[in-house]
Every structure is written in C-alpha cells, then in structure tokens.
Task: inverse folding
C-alpha cells in the first residue's frame, strides 16, 4: 500500500481539516492490512453508525455505577437513574427545537420510531412519501393507506409533485427525509411542512442523517414530528426517539403491549395510559437514552460555522479528488439543480468495471479504509439512479480528518491505475480476500456471525 501524501500547499481550510473537529472513541484504532502491516483505521462509514464521542464515553463511565431500573424503584440508584432518564427527554426536546408540549418517546432507533408513528395515523388518513426514502421511512407506511411520489430532477419540481398529491385530499401525513442517507443531499423540510399544512396534513422528518450534521428547530419550521437514532448521533446502545405533537401519539395504538403502558389491567382487558409511557412498555434502555441525550448536549454546544466548514471542506475535497479519476462517477439525486444542493458529509460514488462490494473490500484490506457498499436500504432510489447492484458511500463526521479522505481517494486512484494487488472471492454474498491474513482481536470471535446474512444494503 502506498503512503498517503497530502499536498503541503493546502488552503487554510484544508489545513484546519487535518485534525478531527471533535474527539471520538476509537479515533486511533489500528486496522490490519493484507500485507501484514497496520494503519490507523480511516472510518468513512459514519452514516451507518458513528463512533461514540469521547465525552459520551466518559459520561457513561460516570453513569454506570448508578444504573438501575427506573420509575418505580425507591432505592437511591433507581432514583438517580429515573432522574437521568426523564431529564434526557427535556434534553432531546431542546436539541430539536421542540415545543414545550411535544412528547419525547424513546425507541430503539429511527425505524422503531416510524413504525410507532404508523400505528398513530388517524383512520382513513393516507401517508405520502418520496421514492428517495430509506426503507425505514417507506416500509412502515405500506401497512396503512399510502401513496408514493417519484422525486423529480429538481427540488422545485419535486415539491410541485408533492403538492399535486396533497391537493387530492386524504393525505394525513407527509413523511420526508431531512438528508439523504445515499447522497447526503438536504431536502427543504420547512417548505415541505408549509405545503403539508396548507392541505391539512402533518409532516414527519426522518432526521437520522440530518440531526448529526445540522441544527434542527421543529417549532420554528412547524415540523409536527421528528425521528432520530442515537447510533448515528455519536451515542452507543441502540436508542432512538420520536419527538412531536401529543394528540396522535396519545390516541394511537400502543407500540408495545406490556408493563408500564397501562392505567389498569384486567384479565380480559386493559385501559392504556397516555404520554410517553403509552409506547414505552417494559424496562427502558436507560443507558441508551442517557448517552443519546449527552451526545445531543455536546453537539448543541458546537460552533456551528466551524463545524459546518470542517465537514464541507472534507466533502468538497473528496468529491474533487474522486471526479478527477477516470471511471469514477459521483452520484446525485437532484441533478437538475442550477447549483449544488446543501449536503451533509456523505459522498456516493461508483467505479466503472468494479463491483461496489469488491471496491469496499479492497479499500479495507489494502488501505485500511472503511466505507459502505450496496443499496443502503434505499432500493427504489438506487434502481432509479441506474445502480441496481449498488454503489459506494463515504461518510464523514466530527472525528473525520483530511487524511481519511485523501487515503480513500488515493486508494481509488490506485485501483483504477494499477488494479487489485490481491485476489478476492465472494463468500456468503460478500467480497473477501481469497487468502485472509488479518486477525481479529483476541477477545473477538474468529469469524463474523452469519445470522441474517442478507442485509438490506446488499440486494
């Protein structure tokens, strides 16, 4: 593997991006290479799961001794955990700019949140969504009355198509992504909300990708519901949340049937409670909610201008480098825009003549770079983009640095110029080195598990 060399005559903005914007856990993780060496792991897969912020990891160490069951425990640790858990709701509400009476319900992730909301749609109301959505914001609506809209080449034309569907009546909810998990392009959520409300509909924003990269203010933008995931927001433990108007949530089908979600239980019936408890049956994910809230507090304190510049510089640098390589195409949804749309730190690309999975395996094994490949749980969009077998996605975050992007660009250029240095084969649907020399840590299983071996990102 060739050594990455960064031009010494860099602009001040690029020089600043040589360092991570914030400290994350695992930033100096060493990745073994097929040639027997090792290199600092270049994590360019933030859009799948972001590493925990170092401040979140430190907070977790403080919190763990107090971890206990919440709400009905009289013990000291239970009281501390309950206080932390309920305070986390207030933090999340503030983080997204929520209204004082908005409910905050903790879930497992964005997918869980949207499935919960699907059980709260008023009878007879339709859900309207675009074909650019992640499956999490597409599949739950197929169980209720729904209609879909194919995104047009421009934002303006897409909004016109949405309005045409709204004008037909019956639409109760418009479900829209805040930022594409495939290309990073940001959709105008405030304008979408104005359209929806004009025709008596509400709007839910899938902010799984947007929230880790941009400030949200759902009260200002009149967004009815927002959903997000902790694992993309620099928090571990698989917690998510839905924040929004109480009436639908208070009258909707309880998301889980069980303890804590009830006012009264008989052997042959139940009276459900209202508020967050209605949908949070069972023992909650206290540590997940607490670390999600702590990550949100940290991000809320960032210098927004410097934060956005760091990400924008890295994204622009990578796109420029990739587009300079023959056979590489950078993909966009809204190709008809006069100027490029605002976008988060996500770059989607393909290399002509190479399967995306093979390129991803090569980048990992020969360059220590982690990217995502496949269809990114967005099959309708990838098919429409002419990528039925998938593409590659590099995604940045607070811990990213210029050398990560440079090493990816160098690796792709070397592939196009020189080809593969090692042989690769397909096993269980994934490209892997024909001769694997890299070892897992001593404490880890020798080989990855194969349960559920066809994730939605593949086919």
Result:
């Amino acid at each position: 593997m060739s050594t990455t060399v960064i031009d010494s005559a860099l602009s001040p903005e690029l020089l600043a991006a040589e360092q991570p914007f914030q400290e994350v856990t695992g930033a100096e993780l060493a990745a073994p290479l097929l040639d027997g060496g090792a290199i600092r792991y270049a994590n360019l897969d933030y859009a799948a799961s972001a590493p925990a912020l170092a401040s979140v990891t430190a907070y977790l160490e403080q919190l763990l001794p107090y971890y206990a069951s919440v709400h009905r425990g009289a013990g000291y640790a239970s009281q501390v955990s309950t206080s932390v858990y309920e305070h986390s709701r207030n933090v999340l509400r503030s983080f997204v700019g929520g209204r004082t009476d908005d409910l905050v319900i903790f879930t497992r992730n964005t997918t869980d949140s949207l499935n919960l909301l699907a059980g709260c749609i008023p009878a007879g109301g339709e859900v309207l969504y675009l074909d650019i959505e992640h499956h999490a914001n597409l599949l739950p609506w197929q169980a209720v009355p729904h209609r879909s809209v194919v995104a047009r080449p421009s934002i303006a034309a897409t909004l016109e198509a949405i309005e045409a569907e709204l004008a037909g009546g019956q639409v109760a909810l418009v479900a829209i992504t805040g930022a594409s998990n495939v290309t990073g392009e940001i959709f105008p959520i405030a304008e979408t909300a104005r359209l929806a409300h004009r025709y008596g509909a509400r709007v839910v924003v899938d902010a799984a990708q947007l929230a880790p990269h941009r400030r949200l203010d759902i009260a200002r933008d009149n967004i009815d519901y927002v959903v997000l995931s902790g694992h993309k927001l620099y928090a571990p433990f698989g917690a998510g949340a839905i924040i929004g108007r109480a009436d639908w949530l208070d009258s909707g089908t309880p998301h889980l049937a069980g303890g804590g979600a009830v006012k009264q239980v008989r052997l042959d019936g139940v009276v459900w409670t209202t508020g967050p408890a209605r949908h949070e049956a069972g023992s909650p994910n206290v540590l997940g909610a607490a670390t999600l809230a702590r990550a949100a507090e940290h991000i809320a304190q960032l210098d927004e201008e410097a934060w956005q510049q760091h990400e924008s510089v890295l994204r622009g640098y990578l796109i420029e480098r990739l587009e300079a390589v023959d056979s590489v195409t950078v993909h966009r949804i809204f190709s008809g825009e006069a100027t490029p749309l605002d976008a988060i730190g996500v770059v989607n690309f393909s290399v002509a003549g190479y399967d995306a999975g093979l390129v991803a395996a090569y980048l990992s094994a020969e360059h220590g770079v982690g990217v995502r490949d496949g269809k990114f749980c967005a099959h309708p969009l990838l098919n429409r983009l002419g990528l039925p077998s998938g593409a590659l996605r590099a995604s940045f975050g607070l811990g990213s640095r210029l050398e990560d992007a440079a090493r990816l660009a160098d690796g792709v250029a070397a592939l196009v110029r020189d080809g593969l240095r090692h042989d690769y084969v397909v096993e269980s649907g994934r490209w892997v080195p024909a001769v694997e020399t890299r070892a897992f840590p001593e404490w880890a299983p020798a080989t990855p598990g194969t349960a559920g071996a066809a994730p939605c990102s593949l086919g």
About this structure: The chain has two domains: 12-51+303-433, 55-300. The mean pLDDT is 94. The first strand starts at residue 30 and ends at 32.
